[in-house]
Amino acid sequence: MAQSSNPPELLAPAGNLEKLKWAVQYGADAVYFGSEYSLRNFAGNFSLHQAEQGINYLHQHGKKAYITLNIYPFSDEYEKILALASSFDDMNADALIVADLGVFMILRRAGIKAALHISTQANTLSSQTAIEYAELGASRVNLARELSLEQIMAIQQAVSGRIQTEVFIHGAVCFSYSGRCAISDYLTGRRANRGECTHPCRWKYHLMEEERPGEYHPVFEDDRGLYFFNSKDLALFEYIPALAEIGVDSLKIEGRMKSVHYIGSVVSMYRRILDGEHISSEEAFKLLSRVKNRGYSRGFIDGPAEVQDYQLEDNHSAGNTVFAANVTEYSRPDDCWIRVRNKIFAGERLEVLLPSGRLSETTLPNPLTDQKGESHEFANNEQIIRLTSPLPEFSILRRVSE
User: Fold this and answer.
1) What are the entry keywords (predicted)?
2) Fewer Cβ in 10 A, N or C end of the chain?
3) Is 132 exposed, middle or buried (CB count within 10 Å of its CB: 0-12, 13-18, 19+)?
């Protein structure tokens, strides 16, 4: 297949208005976020007023706004979802992301102007299903994570010109089928498919044989247990050129519950790759190690998941940096102000991630000076400190431990 004339869209997550702005500044072409009925009850989410602010901010910067309504609702919730969708439509949202066929049809019949995108929760594994969604009026389908590159290519060839395709390229992965998990509901009463997941796939488990109740079989020589279901994070940076070449329309990053540090670090790296820059695997892993992760995996892109795609030893999410501060306001040519995120010390040297994705370093002043002109040997969270070397707004300052 000939390469698409346009590069794929880079689609970033936002759990709140602040994260939306960071996604834009670090290179996203579009941002997806939600309010109610969006499968992320603990992401912060947007009020209607904040959603309107977010949509306006995106449009002012030439970006697109996609709203998640991808819950599987009960019968008495459809009217509420339609009312919410109509509000987003009046705000000129570019697309609504849905999974449930009932939701899709009521939005179609109501004459919603926004494009309708099919969520990954709908488990689309075939070109036949994608084409049927197109016949119903969908403009895009987010393909299931369980597909290989070869299978994505076959689907792309079959649906090209009929419906857009979207592929997840980075972020946390649920061990269950396309993220549809029943374990949280079973163990805790909090329903994953209602946006309430407690992530029991990250918990420690022991093995017990049916006819030997109470006898827990060791799976390692130590007694820590085994994290059977603890999937590593997805990272498909090596496959971006291939996905672009076969014509995938949008590349999606997971993480509405992640920090602005995560958004800036991950979005900027993929932006650089999409802009044609070659980043070696070694450099990519170095950049991605700066944010919390459970180790990285290629998922299903090469075929079925294997044991190395799971972090069996522990359930910790670790990175090698501390998010120290970010530039809040670019003032004069010779200085700027930073917002402290974690304790910083006068005179210490920190790594800087610029919105362009480039890395540099800076040395903090000694002493530190706050907005009142008072001097400090250190500063804590939320303090505003003057930086004597100018940096662009949204720049990240972080302490690295290799």
Assistant:
1) Hydrolase, Protease
2) C
3) middle
pLDDT at position 312, please? 43
How far apart are the C-alpha atoms of 277 and 289, rounded to whole Å? 19
| Percent of the chain that is helix, strand, coil (3-state, to 5) | 30, 25, 45
pLDDT cut 90: percent of the chain above it: 68
Question: What domains are defined for the chain?
Answer: 9-173+231-309 (3.20.20.70), 177-217 (no CATH), 321-400 (2.40.30.10)
Question: Tokens at residue 190, please?
Answer: 């909090």
| Residue entry with tokens 């030997």 | 212
Query: CA-to-CA distance for 13 and 169, rounded, in angstroms?
Result: 12
For residue 208, pLDDT beyond 80? no
Q: How many helices (H) and strands (E) does the chain have?
A: 10, 22
The one-letter code for the residue type at 80 is K
C-alpha radius of gyration, the chain, whole number:
22
pLDDT at position 309 is 45
